Amino acid sequence: MTAGPPVSARELTLLAGGGVELVGRVANSSNATFLVEVSDGGDAAYAIYKPEAGERPLADFAPGLYRRERAAYLLSETLQWGIVPPTVIRGDAPLGIGSLQWFIEADAGEHYFTLYAHAPETRAALVRIAVFDCLANNTDRKSGHVLRGPDGHIWGIDNGLCFAAASKLRTVIWDFAGDPIPDALLADIAPLAEAVPPGLAELLDDGEAAALARRARRLLRDGVLPEDATGMRYPWPLV
User: For residue 93, is it within any domain?
Assistant: First the structure.
């Protein structure tokens, strides 16, 4: 099992029960996304708030992308891969129901392309994100959605366009296509092939939950990361 960094009780306590105050809107986001401060007594931290009210209508995803943000976190926690920052759903946030995700301080000049090219020590973490995106059927893995935290840990953020039942994988992480999936990761995936945990499944519809289990079975059967035969399965913009 490949363990990620431990999630502290402080992080979950602040996100789930702290007061939420708007700080500002995140620029250049396709949906309304806000930096907020969450506080509980004398403790405070930043989080990213994505309210349902700020979502643009999409033809291929129903409203409620915040649920998919939470589902991605639960998938990451189920696998114990530590990819998605702690994420909760809050109905009492300033602009209505949405997701709150722990804010990761990172150098904006670092992203998937720079890490792959110049930080070989991150290779195992990048492979793990590639496998995670295949499982989650991520439709929007841009390079800028891969962050390196102050402690060097690699995170995958912006996971709202995941878990569609139909194959929609679009990602910049094709450098490992055709490579064998490490045995430790396959062992972590195996339980999902049998059953999707209830807390995760309840955030998806029945078809999406069943498709997640099918994707797990396919990865176990093939044992390699998929290839893009079309050369077009990229999000836009790339970063």
Answer: yes
Q: What are phi and psi of 7, to 5 degrees?
A: -90, 120
How many domains is the chain partitioned into structurally? 1
229 in a structural domain: no
CB 2 within 8 A of CB 128: yes
Is this prediction's pTM over 0.90? yes
**Enclosing domain of residue 136:** 9-222
In a domain, 233, yes or no: no
pLDDT per position as a tens digit, 228-237: 999 999 999 9
